[in-house]
Amino acid sequence: MTGPRPGLSWPVLVGLAALAAPRVVLHDLGVVEEGTLAAGLLVVVPPACWVAAALWWRPPRPFATLVVVGALYGVLLAVGHQLLWNAAFDGPVPALGGALAGTDPALAEVLLRAAAVVSSLVTGTLVGVVTGAVALLLHRLTR
After folding, report:
1. In the prediction, which pLDDT does 1 show?
2. Where do the TM regions start and end (predicted)?
3. Is the separation of the CB atoms in 50 and 63 below 8 Å?
4. What pLDDT, on the 0 to 100 scale, is given for residue 87?
5. Contact 84, 23 (CB under 8 A)
6. Global confidence as pTM
7. What pLDDT is stored for residue 26 in this prediction?
8. Per residue, what are the HEC states of the chain?
9. What Cα–Cα distance (Å) separates residue 50 from each residue in 16, 20, 41, 103, 142?
């Protein structure tokens, strides 16, 4: 049984998601600092390209299409953060605090990495939701 199709080919969907992947690498390696013009462009330009692609190719469901792109971006974000985990932190990796302070370091790392994966998937999907809503609105306004 198959569900609704996202409206663009899978290579296009993955390619659109990959437009946002350089930010993960450049940020985690400390090449681009938060608050700079470069960082801002890396945040804004890829989702703007997603919206432009949805307007250009006119998939039947632009909202769903860009939610899929965002979810794929979330996967890339999660993988990138996991691969660059040690490089992303100056010195020791984060530790758990509060009630979980003193947790075995190996368990703490598993918990923190799992939280980072969930956070990445949610972030990517939410970017897809926002861009999908913008694309849907613009799609309806430009019929």
Report:
1. 45
2. 36-56, 63-84, 114-138
3. no
4. 86
5. no
6. 0.90
7. 95
8. CCCCCCCCCHHHHHHHHHCCHHHHHHHHCCCCCCCCHHHHHHHHHHHHHHHHHHHHHCCCCHHHHHHHHHHHHHHHHHHHHHHCHHHHCCCCCCCCCHHHCCCCHHHHHHHHHHHHHHHHHHHHHHHHHHHHHHHHHHHHHCC
9. 6, 10, 14, 42, 16
Burial (CB count within 10 angstroms: exposed 0-12, middle 13-18, buried 19+), residue 68: buried
Residue the block writes with tokens 């919206």: 51
Pull the structure tokens for residue 74: 């979330």
Domain ranges of the chain: 10-141
